[in-house]
Each structure stands twice: as C-alpha cells, then as structure tokens.
Amino acid sequence: ITYRFPAGFWWGSATSATQIEGAANEGGKGKNIWDHWYEQEPHRFFQGVGPEVTSDFYHRYKEDIALMKEIGHNSFRFSISWSRLIPDGVGEVNSEAVRFYNAVIDELLANGIEPFVNLYHFDMPLVMQNIGGWENREVIDAYARYASLCFQLFGDRVKTWFTHNEPIVPVEGGYLYDFHYPNVVDFRRAVQVAYHTMIAHAKAVAAFRRAAIQGGKIGIILNLTPSYPRSQHPADVKAAHIADLLFNRSFLDPAVKGEYPQDLIELLAEHRFLPVTEVGDRELIKENTIDLLGINYYQPRRVKAKEHLPNPDAPFLPERFFDYYAMPGRKMNPYRGWEIYEKGIYDILINIKENYGNIECFISENGMGVEGEERFRDESGMIHDDYRIEFIRGHLKWVHRAIEEGVNVKGYHLWTFMDNWSWTNAYKNRYGLVAVDLDNHLKRTIKKSGYWLKTVAENNGF
Ligand code: BGP
C-alpha cells in the first residue's frame, strides 16, 4: 500500500433528497421548487425527465444501504427534504417523513455506516419560495425552526450535520445564470439571497449549539473552486482574486472565520450592491462558526483580466470583473466537458490549513460525470468505468499529500453512491459507484469503481 490514510478515515459517498428519493407526490410530501418548475416547464429538463421517481430510494433504501455496506462505506451523506418533513415549510410536521428518515438512519447504523445529514440541498419548499424564498427573513426563521426540529428528532443518532450544500449554486442558478428556479437574472437579489443563506446557516448553527447534541459536529458544504489567474500580471491576479471572493470566500470566510472579507465588502459597496442587513447579524455570524468543513471539488476556475469594457446595457454579472479562458494543454473529461485538474484539491486543502486555522475538513464531493455510460456495460451487466477509478485515484493522491503536509482531512466522499437525477440535467451525466438501469426497473449494479473503492476502504489506502 503506497497511499495509506489516517485511522478512522471516512470512506463513502454523498447524495441529496430530491436527486434520489423519488416519491415526490407520496408519503405526504409537499411540493418543492423542483416539483413545481418541472410541472410548469418540463421542456427545461433533459429529455423532459422530472424528479417524481429519480432512483426511488424512498422505497429501496434497504437494498441501497446493503449495497453501501457491500462496497465498504463507513459513512454516507444524504439530505433531508424540508418539504417532505414539513410540507409547507413552516407548519405541521409530516409523521410519515419522520418515520422514513428514522428508518434510513437506523438502517445505516445497523450496517455500520455513519449517517452524515445535510439540511438543505437546493430544494426550497414551494410555499416558502412563493413568499420570496431566501429573500424573505420569514423563510430564514422557518428554516431555523426546521433545523432545530431535525436536531431534536434525529440528533440522538446523527452526530454529523451540515446546514447547506453548495449555497453559492442556488445563487448562481436561480438569480444569475438561469438554471435553477426562480431563474431570474438580478445581481442585487443574488447578493441578498447569498447573504440571507448565510444568516440562515448561522441561525441553524446557533440552534445546533442550543440542542447540545453529545459528540455532535456541524458544518457547511462548499464547492470551493480554486481560481487560477492566466498569468502573474497584476490585472490577471486581480481578476482571479475577485472570482475567489465572489464564488468561494463569500461563504468560506463567514462560515469559518465569522466575518466577510473586507475586500468583498468594498467591492460590493463600490458598485452599490451591499445587501440589506439587520442589527445583530454581524454578531450572529461571528458567534456561530462551524466545527467541520465539507469541500466539494470538481474543476478549477481559469480566469484572466477582462479584455473589453463590459457592455453597459448587459445585466450585471460576476463576469463584469473577469473573463474565463481555457488553459492550453489542460486535461478534459471527454464525457462531460469539465476540466480535470487533480492538484486543485491539494491547493484548496493547503489554503484551508494556511488561512483557515487548519479546521477539520473532508472531501464531501468529488466525482466524474459521464454521458452515455451504458455503452461501457459488459454482458454480465457490469459497467467498466476505469476512467472513474483513474479520476478518484488521481485526486486521492493529492489528498494524501495534503494530509502528509499536516492538513486536517478526515475523509473522502464520492459524488455519488448511485446514478441519480441531477436537476435540469436529469439522468444525462452518470456519477454513481452503482449503476441504475433506467430501462430495466431501476435495477442496481455495482460498477467496477464500486468494487475498487471497496478495496480502498478495506485497506484504508491503495
Ligand atoms: C454538484 C451538486 C450535485 C450534483 C453534481 C453533478 O455541484 O452538489 O447535486 O448535481 O454537481 O452535476 P451535473 O449532473 O450537472 O453534472
């Protein structure tokens, strides 16, 4: 074994409620924005496929947890669907949902798998969105109530909690680039949503402290995309710095350090985009920093200085401050047009060690999406995803090196356990360790990568 990981390293995978549960109209679940958007505009979704069924984890969780055990998972992240637990977001608790999540948690524990629970993965209850979603402070309070209810209901068995997954994504998707509901393009509203998501996060952390869960830890999961300048020219470096402020540090700094970067405040002030705040917010953020940071990493951001003046009539977007460029010779995932840059994961981790107090962290998502993966299935039914094994191995080597250099990394979770439904991309890009056959009653088959990760978990290295 060349790469051995610290004892107790977390091996597993991550999922989210809307992407795997299905049963969107069953078990008393209320509608969330995805159910609604799909009803309104099915054509936006890849091949017109919506979230009603997805991977049907709601009915098959036992079979799935048995497979997790079979491939050596010692931990697993899922999210609770807010609109399943509290159908209108704020009122009555749905007892069928309580039963379902209890059953999932108990089944995981009975199989020796530590449950990691995330409270919010892009799935705003529709009733909450209809009063403004994260733009409305009432929704923040409803979310804080929901969070504290989850701690009460499940905190006796769930010790590892997260407030949000990739909170920048609903900001980008919903308020800047038109790929999440409510799909508007409005920088001012985007800033307000980002800020309020952070306030909601801090209130959930405060509720967690009050719940005093024995041995419990709470964190946030951020997609940290390292921002690399094209050159060391000051204009390029500045462009990369601004991208880093907007996409990474807007959540990383308040979550870990309890305050926003001064440069970010100045940048927003200069363009008159500071969010509306309330008395006490600053203290709330200051007092409620996290215990554990989840890091999602897929690809880096390659940035250069803007070459042309921004068009004054174009909507104000982050690209006002920089342009993207394709680094010559970069490695690409040929099956899903994203760059593969393994060292990026190391750069993120070193930054956490050097600038964020070496806070306890783990890789909460990393993975390789593949379009048309069925073509790699053999006669026995197994998908030979050697490219995915290569991808994971390449990233794990850099994680290992970061650990050797003293970064406090506790685990590695792949995106994702089984092929699942991904927002408007539906089933286009497959990421699972386990294949889900859409043409054969959602039959599960462990992929070659699943067996490979099993040996890695068993040996605690490779
Ligand atoms: C991450 C999200 C996941 C998942 C993944 C793959 O950013 O946390 O929810 O969707 O991206 O995305 P896609 O299917 O678009 O390739």
Characteristic terms for this protein:
15 strands, 15 helices, TIM Barrel, 462 residues, binds 6-O-phosphono-beta-D-galactopyranose
Topology, element by element:
Blueprint lengths: L9 E5 L2 H4 L12 H8 L16 H14 L4 E5 L2 H4 L9 H16 L3 E5 L7 H5 L6 H18 L5 E6 L2 H8 L11 H25 L5 E7 L3 E3 L4 H24 L4 H9 L10 H7 L4 E5 L4 E4 L18 E2 L18 H13 L5 E5 L4 E2 L14 H19 L4 E7 L13 E2 L3 E4 L5 E4 L1 H12 L3
Parallel strand pairs: 1-2, 1-12, 2-3, 3-4, 4-5, 5-7, 6-8, 7-10, 10-12
Antiparallel strand pairs: 8-9, 11-13, 14-15
This protein binds 6-O-phosphono-beta-D-galactopyranose.
The site of 6-O-phosphono-beta-D-galactopyranose (BGP) has 12 residues, from loops.
Give an overview of the whole structure.
By secondary structure, the chain is α/β, with parallel strands linked by helices. It has one domain (about 10-460): Glycosidases (TIM Barrel). The chain has 15 helices and 15 strands. The protein has helices at about 15-20, 35-40, 55-70, 80-85, 95-110, 125-130, 135-155, 170-175, 185-210, 235-255, 260-270, 280-285, 345-355, 385-405, 450-460, and strands at about 10-15, 75-80, 115-120, 160-165, 215-225, 225-230, 290-295, 300-305, 325, 360-365, 370, 410-415, 430, 435, 445. It has an 8-stranded parallel barrel with strand order 1-2-3-4-5-7-10-12, surrounded by 4 helices. Strands 6-8-9 form a 3-stranded mixed sheet, with helices on one face. Strands 11-13 form a two-stranded antiparallel ribbon. A hairpin with a 5-residue loop joins β14 and β15. α3 runs parallel beside α5 (about 95-110) and α8 (about 170-175) packs antiparallel against α9. The longest helix is centred in the middle third of the chain and has 25 residues, at about 185-210. It is globular, with a radius of gyration of 21 Å. The mean pLDDT is about 100. 6-O-phosphono-beta-D-galactopyranose binds next to loops.
